[in-house]
Specification:
The complex is a heterodimer of chains A (181) and B (393). Chain A is mainly α. Chain A is built from 9 helices and 2 strands, in the order H-H-H-H-H-H-H-E-E-H-H. With 393 residues, chain B is an alpha/beta fold. Helix content of chain B is 36%, strand content 20%. The chains are: A mainly alpha (181), B alpha/beta (393).
Chain lengths: 181, 393
């Protein structure tokens, strides 16, 4: 395994990122280096992963290595898959860190996705909540080829207006769900 | 005049050459006599700016968190050379209340964890007081005279606390009588401090044209994340004193912060405030949630390692600020809004820098334009406004 200084030199990390890595405790260093070898992130990806882990550690009065180890444990089965590419590993790791750093935000994201999928599956309607959950406007898109299609669409839209997933999306956006306390 | 020193008074005072003879300079130096080291400064460059530090031969610039903390104990008396009166920049894609701002200085010796000045003044961290105050008043006079049909709400608390230096400057002794004579403007002083002796002494001169506002928060937030400020208790006592002197007060629940048990703490704060203050004496109340530029995150982490403020459920909004996600923001604002309405149904409420969607959801409708909010503030001076009060009240 490379030493921290060797890694910084090899990756030509900028000063601010290098300083942050050097500030790691002796206990944190081996865990981080092992992760770096496994994920082989670019400097930007590393900066983001590091920021997330650092903020979780500070918030929970824990250490970066404990946070990283927790994520590795959570993902151990998935990461064991040898077919998984480097980018996918990085993405999975980042998403797991985001779930820890922003538990409500990520739960909302999952719940909105589930509602959108349900509307698509049950009513064949593509409904999209606003980006970053900002706003009170939903985008609904559909394609029709004939007057009959349009008639059907009108019926499906009518059904959507009473559909629990539709109401659920609006409630979540308004802050009126149990996800936000 | 002998004053008991405050913990936040500066240790070093830089005085620009051109400010030396200004009355405000003389006053501040006389009152700080023996308390702070005084250094005469050629030019107007902030002595803690990167440029100044480099010119002094600093091989490597210290981190922003360090110079900002040094700036908190350093005061610069200088002349302001720019345009005094500006429309509040607000924030892009959000509804603005169209406040006009005039800055009698820059930076604040109080030290709130969440203060946006930590990024806004990162390159100019020295606290400043502008000594050419007569020019400030002349600029306000000129602007308001040019548009006699327009009503100006002018605040001094955008980049400085309006009251924290008043014991040293007596600035309110100039501002309040000046606005008392103004036909088409109201002054809003905004503070987290309780220095109101001067205001009380001006009971016969403000003529209802000064609103004294306090930023308020849940008491546990004030205790943990508003270092050196007056406690809520002290702010309320100060508010009672100025109300006795005939002023109306403003209240700014800003920033509302999300933490475990926040509902109970904000409910308690609302009740405590309105058991001390008669809602009829309140000109306006704003409610807004935590927001700050993303580069401030690290400064907060460095300067306030014990605080939980930087760890909210945020996202990077289009105005490049970290804000709580909308569902959480709406929940927070709605709760505080409803709590205020439950104890003070007719009070004029507004949101600072929130989206049109927030206005629709929380207030029932978005203002048609910023001017509508100006109208609320101007009407309030003469009669109870109705626009932001719930229908039927």
């Amino acid at each position: 395994m490379l030493s921290l200084e060797e890694y910084i030199a090899e990756k030509r990390l900028d000063n601010s990122l290098a300083e942050r890595l050097r500030a790691l405790t002796a206990a944190d260093r081996p865990t981080i280096l092992e992760l770096l070898e496994e994920l082989d992130p670019s400097a930007n990806t590393l900066r983001e992963l590091f920021r997330l882990a650092d903020e979780v550690a500070r918030r929970d009065r824990s250490t970066i290595s404990a946070v990283i180890l927790g994520v590795r444990e959570e993902l151990s089965a998935t990461l064991a898959n040898a077919k998984l590419g480097r980018k996918d590993r990085q993405r999975l790791f980042r998403e797991a860190l985001e779930r820890r750093r922003y538990p409500v935000r990520e739960q909302i994201r999952q719940e909105l996705l589930a509602c959108e999928e349900r509307l698509l599956r049950e009513l064949n309607l593509r409904c999209r909540a606003p980006q970053d959950f900002e706003g009170d406007t939903l985008e609904i898109s559909a394609t029709v080829r004939s007057a009959a299609d349009l008639q059907q669409l009108a019926e499906r839209l009518q059904q959507a207006s009473d559909h629990p997933s539709f109401k659920r999306i609006l409630d979540i956006l308004k802050g009126e769900s149990e996800l936000v306390v | 005049m002998s004053l008991a020193p405050r913990e936040f008074w500066p240790e070093v005072v830089y005085v620009s050459e051109d400010s030396l003879q200004d009355p405000l300079t003389q006053r501040v130096l006389a009152r700080l006599n023996g308390y702070a080291q005084v250094i005469e400064l050629k030019g107007n460059t902030d002595p803690l700016s990167p440029e100044a530090l480099k010119s002094e031969g600093a091989a490597k610039l210290p981190p922003i968190s360090e110079t900002y903390s040094r700036g908190k104990r350093t005061l610069m008396l200088t002349r302001y050379l720019g345009s005094w009166l500006k429309a509040c920049p607000g924030t892009s894609q959000h509804v603005c209340c169209n406040l006009w701002i005039v800055n009698p200085g820059e930076g604040c010796p109080l030290d709130c964890t969440y203060c946006y000045l930590q990024s806004y003044l990162a390159r100019n961290p020295t606290l400043k007081l502008y000594t050419n105050t007569s020019e400030m008043l002349a600029a306000i006079q000129a602007k308001t005279s040019q548009q006699p049909g327009r009503y100006f709400r002018i605040g001094t608390g955008e980049v400085i606390d309006s009251l924290v230096w008043d014991e040293l400057t007596d600035l309110t002794l100039e501002l309040v009588p000046f606005f008392g004579r103004l036909e088409n403007g109201v002054l809003e002083l905004k503070s987290k401090f309780d220095s109101v002796d001067n205001l009380v002494a001006l009971a016969d001169e403000h003529r209802g044209n000064t609103v004294v506002s306090w930023s308020v928060n849940a008491e546990c937030v004030s205790e943990k994340d508003e270092a050196s400020t007056a406690s809520l208790e002290r702010r309320l006592i100060a508010a009672q004193r100025v109300i006795q002197a005939g002023y109306r007060v403003g209240l700014h629940f800003d920033p509302v912060i999300h933490f475990a048990g926040w509902q109970d703490h904000y409910r308690d704060a609302v009740r405590k405030i309105f058991s001390s203050i008669d809602p009829k004496k309140v000109a306006w109340v704003s409610v807004s949630t935590l927001r700050y530029r993303k580069e401030m995150q690290q400064v907060m982490l460095d300067r306030f390692p014990e605080s939980f403020v930087p760890f909210g459920e945020q996202f990077l909004a289009k105005d490049d600020k970290l804000r709580y996600i909308q569902p959480l923001r709406f929940r927070l604002v709605n709760f505080v809004w409803d709590e205020i309405r439950s104890v003070a149904p007719n009070i004029p409420l507004y949101m600072c820098m929130e989206s049109s969607a927030a206005w629709r959801q929380i207030a029932g409708a978005a203002p048609l334009a910023g001017s509508e909010l100006v109208e609320i503030f101007s009407r309030q001076r003469r009669a109870t406004p109705t626009l932001l009060a719930p229908s039927g009240t």
